Amino acid sequence: DAGITQSPRHKVTETGTPVTLRCHQTENHRYMYWYRQDPGHGLRLIHYSYGVKDTDKGEVSDGYSVSRSKTEDFLLTLESATSSQTSVYFCAIKGTTSGNTIYFGEGSWLTVV
Amino acid sequence: DAKTTQPNSMESNEEEPVHLPCNHSTISGTDYIHWYRQLPSQGPEYVIHGLTSNVNNRMASLAIAEDRKSSTLILHRATLRDAAVYYCILRDVPLGGRDDKIIFGKGTRLHILP
After folding, report:
1. Minimum-distance CB partner of B106 among A42, A45, A100
2. How many Cβ atoms sit within 10 Å of the Cβ of residue A46?
């Protein structure tokens, strides 16, 4: 258990509304990641962070922004949600033991109607 | 980033060994080979990793080819609970740099037949 908590776990929102997903970790890890998972696409990297206020884009960053003002929190924001952003979102952290194992949160199910 | 290639899906019978292949022909000398699996409605979880030598743990074994261009995850006796998507990825440990994108891909969906 890497102490990762995602919130909310489930959310239904309307098209055009802003949505923020939170990833919270208790282990003081430097690297944090946001992925989305859709049928037929596997896990796709949205954004990642390598420290406070240091973030970078992943494979599918359009329509998403992130912020990391504290080590323990990595926020993913959909500025204006669209139906194509209906997905399961996973947060992950990179551990510091041999091989830098990756640990995932339990996921946030987002439906945009 | 070095990429991996895995079959989209595989089937195996319960209580038989399963060999899940992964090709990584562009692997670099500092890349670790990691395997993760994702059970239904859960986040992916770590299975095993290795660099050059074969590795064993309580979940599985990892066999790495001598040229490191391929590897095989071995489940010695599959159970129905092993039905999942298995991801093979390469992990380079950056020398303090920031660039550490971790790309997963689609993985192999393993079906276990009772």
Report:
1. A42
2. 22
